[in-house]
Amino acid sequence: MGTRPRDKEATKAILVEAVGKVLARDGFLRVGVNSVAREAGVDKVLIYRYFGGLTGLVREFSDSRKFWPGMEDIVGPDPQAFLAQPIHEMLSTGLINYARFIRNKPLSLAIIAWMLMESNELTRAFQDTRSGMFSGLMDKARSSQGPSEIDVGSLGNLLGAAVAFLALSMRFPENYHNELVDPKAWTDVENMIRVICSKVLCDGS
């Protein structure tokens, strides 16, 4: 009796990890109860027993944030120092850190592609995790901005979408933006992010 809770938690962890393995190897179209259970080496009934179904399991995987940047990945080890920056530096730093994280995470890019192509309970689980983190950050950025006609949230969304698109294009360099496989090209992208944030939020305020 005493070992059962540990067995349950170990099995849950294996199932959560299996979601990431299936997604990374086979893509989002292959994420299902059978494929995940097979990857984990357990009976699929445990997915329903422990998570209530595939959506609950995917949400658990999403909440683990193994694939998505945490707050420290975006703002750095000192949140107070990050928030003390001028608004244009705060936004550009966050966007650059976000770009550096996702472009080196094939699983993150696969999930972003999935969210762009599908709208279902599974993709919404990922979107909820993503939105929860960034909404809090953007609220703090807005509060430090002061009066302005420029909505820093909209600017962040626009540039964040551009960063995601450029990172996704690296998965198919033969079709689009093959120069982005060169790290120097990303240095140029980062410099342009700084310029845009400075020009819009300083000159346009």
Describe the structure.
- This protein has helices spanning 4-26, 33-40, 45-51, 54-64, 71-75, 79-83, 87-102, 106-117, 121-145, 152-169, 183-203.
- The chain is globular and about 60 Å long.
- Helix content is 74%, strand content 0%.
- The protein has 205 residues and is an all-alpha fold.
- The longest helix has 25 residues, at 121-145.
- It has two domains: 4-64, Homeodomain-like (Arc Repressor Mutant, subunit A, Orthogonal Bundle); 71-203.
What tags apply to this protein structure?
11 helices, Arc Repressor Mutant, subunit A, disordered N terminus, mainly alpha, 205 residues
What's the gist of this structure?
The chain contains eleven helices and no strands. With 205 residues, the protein is mainly α.
**Cα end-to-end separation:** 65 Å
Global mean pLDDT: 82
User: What would you report as the Rg, rounded to the nearest angstrom?
Assistant: 20 Å
The helix fraction, in percent, is over 70%
Count of strand segments: 0
Assess the beta-strand content as a share of residues.
under 5%
Shape, per Cα inertia axes: globular
Give the count of structural domains: 2
Structural class: mainly alpha
Give a short account of the largest sheet.
none
Number of helices: 11
Which stretches are poorly predicted, pLDDT < 50 over at least 5 residues? 1-5
H/E element string? HHHHHHHHHHH
